[in-house]
Amino acid sequence: MEIKFSHVNSKIFSDLSFVIPKGEIVGIYGDNGDKLLRLIALEDESKGIIYFDGNRKLRRNYYLFRKTIELVDKRFNNLFNIDSVYSYFVTYIRYKKMEVLDIDKKIKDSLRIVGLKVDILDRRISTLTGSELKLLQFALAFLSNPKVILLDEPFRGLDLNARKKLVRIITRLKDKFSKTIVIYSNNPNYLYQYTNYLIVLDNNKILVEGKCEDIFFDKKYNIVRPDIVSFIMLVKDKKNVKLPRRKSVMDLIKDIYWNVK
Q1: pTM of the model as a whole
Q2: Looking at the structure, do residues 51 and 169 belong to the same domain, yes or no?
Q3: CA 20 to 30 Å from 233, out of 25, 50, 133, 193?
Q4: Per-residue pLDDT in tens (0 to 9) along the chain, 261 residues
Q5: Which domain holds residue 47?
């Protein structure tokens, strides 16, 4: 689903105009990016023009678009004060008023997508690790089969293996199921490595949007750059050696090796 904002204002933001391309992994960078996620999710009031796949959001139809979007918060919030994983799934389905013929199958399918074993349903939420809680949030989000998934600092607190697993899930959702993924993070290394398109906020306005690599390599933007980008730019400035725009450190090391030779 493509989302287009045109001159949108809210309590925090002013004159927002940007596009979230359909079927892409989009990054949001800058202060209050988490608030922008909530605006995109239609959780906060706004004035202006918003289109979803070319259809304008109006008072009478906004709930239809809201049903196609799921927001995964940076931390798990136990909405129902329920400790049983299985009971939480069932209550969540009822809370969202989902029309489900086979609840158990629906739950197991969502667990399979994120790589969680079915036996987690017999456990208590209070016993889950940080990585398991994050995957649980994803599984809950997939129950409604959303077209757009908004992620608030999804990599925070995860170790390298858990982060790689999460990236595989996100990439699969984009490539196999054509989901539009929007990631907010204030870590430029994650955004550069894992997103294709970038929206940069500055003073609650859009500073720039476009291809992630182009923005981070453009010197006219006074933003904190990913470590690998800063290194490539430093080598060009100090040694006059133009290295390719790599996202992988290992690939960059190979480039440096061949340049030295």
Answers
A1: 0.91
A2: yes
A3: 25
A4: 899 999 999 999 999 999 999 999 999 999 999 999 999 999 988 999 999 988 888 777 877 888 899 999 999 999 999 999 999 999 999 998 898 899 999 999 999 988 899 999 999 999 999 889 999 999 999 998 899 999 999 988 788 888 888 898 889 888 888 899 999 999 999 999 999 999 999 999 999 999 999 999 999 999 999 999 998 898 888 878 888 888 877 777 776 666 655
A5: 1-68+146-211
Q: Is residue 104 part of a domain?
A: yes
Alpha carbons 29 and 154: distance in angstroms, whole number: 13
In this structure, which amino acid lies at residue 261?
Answer: K
Other CB atoms within 10 A of residue 138 CB: 23
Total domain count for the chain?
3
Residue pair 232/245 in contact (Cβ under 8 Å)? The answer is yes
Residues 64 and 41 in one domain: yes
